[in-house]
Amino acid sequence: MTTKRTNEQWLAELQAEHPNYETAVANLTTILANGLRRGLLARVQTPAPEFHTQAEDFAQEAVLKVLDNLETFAGRSKFTTWAHKIAIAVALTELRRKRWQDSSLNSLTESDGGGDYTPSFVADDAPTPENRTARAELLTYVQSLIENELTERQRTALVDSVIQGKSTNQIAKKLEMKPNAVYKLLHDARLKLKKSLAKDGYTPGDILQIFD
Predict the structure, then answer these.
(1) What is the per-residue pLDDT for 153?
(2) Could you tell me if 207 and 138 are in contact, meaning their C-beta atoms sit under 8 angstroms apart?
(3) Element counts in the chain: helices (H) and strands (E)
(4) What is the pLDDT, as a whole number, of residue 79?
(5) Which one, of 147, 145, 156, lies nearest residue 182 by Cα?
(6) What per-residue confidence (pLDDT) applies to 106?
(7) What DSSP designation does 78 have?
(8) Angle between helix 79-96 and helix 48-68 axes, rounded to 10 deg
(9) Which of 51, 91, 111, 159 gives the lowest tally of CB atoms within 10 Å of its CB?
């Protein structure tokens, strides 16, 4: 059973230093997963074995986005309503990407010719020389940030989550951590990368725009 909280209580308890942080994260994950099961996922054709797993995975990713964007919550709605909108956006994005997941994960992450990793879905069928160069430079830049700015555990968690598509529970088992501790690990890693990007004059949108 989850505890009812005001908007102010959610914002306070989802701060990593708050004593109720892990409980608040677990409660929010449950709320979002249940909302997705009753709403969006109930309306799409999802095989029964995947239904509950997808809801958990989408909710976990949504919680990470919520933690990354707490400062943008304007308080014009209930906090959980705002968080549900983020969860729905995450789920819709991932469901659209299902066509990539339907091939094998290896085919998405393996490099052509055995060179450096470049996700196959990043490249256009016929990218311009300018875009090809910009992408190569940005991929090298981001890889450098991951290698040099993150701790080993942060790097492992981020690569497993973003590139290999592992769930928070899988990462927690690998690193012998509690799932809620993995949330904080990933949140701290993302925050560190954001600060490094901003320091060098980039925003996450700049990175994403190159790959549109």
Answers:
(1) 92
(2) yes
(3) 12, 0
(4) 93
(5) 156
(6) 40
(7) -
(8) 120
(9) 111
Rg (CA), the chain: 18
- Check: CB of residue 179 under 8 Å from CB of residue 21: no
Structure-block tokens of residue 59? 């909710």
Give dist(CA 162, CA 122) in Å, integer.
14
Which phi and psi (to 5°) does residue 81 adopt?
-65, -45
Which residues of the chain are under the pLDDT cut of 50?
100-126, 210-212
| 159 Cβ contact partners less than 8 Å away, ≥ 6 residues apart | 146
Find out whether 121 and 98 touch, Cβ atoms under 8 Å. Answer: no
Query: Measured on CA atoms in the order 172, 180, 81, 51, is the torsion positive or negative?
Result: positive
Domains and CATH numbers, the chain: 7-96 (1.10.1740.10), 105-210 (1.10.10.10)
Amino acid type, 10: W
Do residues 60 and 167 lie in contact, with contact meaning Cβ atoms separated by under 8 Å?
yes
Per the prediction, the chain carries an average pLDDT of 76
Q: What is the pLDDT of residue 125?
A: 46
- CA 162, 168, 171, 177 torsion: positive or negative? positive
How many residues are listed for the chain in this entry? 212
- pLDDT of 24 reads 93
Q: Is the dihedral of CA 156, 69, 63, 11 positive or negative?
A: positive
